Amino acid sequence: MKKRLRKFRDAIFIVTEERGCPIYNVGEEFEVDEFRLTVPSLKPDCLILAEEISKIVTSKKSFRDNVSMFNSKKLSFDCGGCQGIIHFEFKKEKSHVTLQMKLLKKTEERHRRQRLDKYFRIFRNLGIFESLDDDALSDLTVLLEVKTVPTAKVVIKKGEPGSHLYIIMNGHVSVHAEDGSTFAETGTGGIFGEMSLLTGDPVSNSIHTITDTQVAMLSIKNFKHALKKHPVLQLFLLRMLVDRAQTATLRSGNITSGMTGELAEIPVVDLFQLINSSQKTGRIDLIMDMGKAAVCFKDGQIIHAHFLKLRDKDAVFALLGVKNGHFSYTRGVPDEFESLPSIGDFMGLLMEGLQRFDEDQEE
User: CATH for 120-248?
Assistant: First the structure.
């Protein structure tokens, strides 16, 4: 009579070391329950690892006879069937879990749930996660590690390999150039570290904290898994990279047709001066809370402007005080404006407009 097929032994294993594994991280757990293997949340199943664990839980030599010794001897295993390798250890046998261990696990789970709920509410208000539904955001929250970095500390250093995507939950950081000068700042909701993760290049700029800053970190491995599972994050990052490239181009003194941006990053005065110094012929369209505006340039001189009911000089003067809104630049001007003369010397207009703005502020 054939022997009955022996049931898989239920157990939990934990990763203790990882070198180049494309999927799993140190500290992650695998649970064997009946004939099922459960892997960490948001992670794909690895058939190679599944085969290794099935051998372990059904092997008398490596597991069954030694499992009673787990209090005095760690049972270590490894999986090296692909380009990387991980070492993992037996944590506990599920059937041996005591009432005290169950209560402890429930307490840990409750604290973990409270922590995730707290962070979920914060993440829900951040732009990068706006397109994710609640279930997807809950899954992603599990993968994020949160820490607070004190004031005046280096978060990432230029030249180092990229290891994490950073999301600012609270606080402020500055971006430093190679000479140590600050050329950009960002606060709550800001993202950094993504470029080196996407390209594989070293970090291009050092990031320093200006205040005590709380950041959520997504490791490069979890970052790649999140992008595969949630393609909408790819679209968000792509738009963000395009915006950053355009902002960098503007700061370098260049503007090209089709370029867009935010007035909070490039003030109206700087934008107008950029077009004037480049002697561009084109049109700036602005969209603001109070309405739309357009300013036409010919060889760097303003030939037409309108903003609400205001025209030409009055429109330009009013626009110089605008701080928030969206702009887009288009090469060329409408045919009917081609023959128009400038509405005044550009620098003269600028000086008069800024003087009026200062006087209005003082009243």
Answer: 2.60.120.10
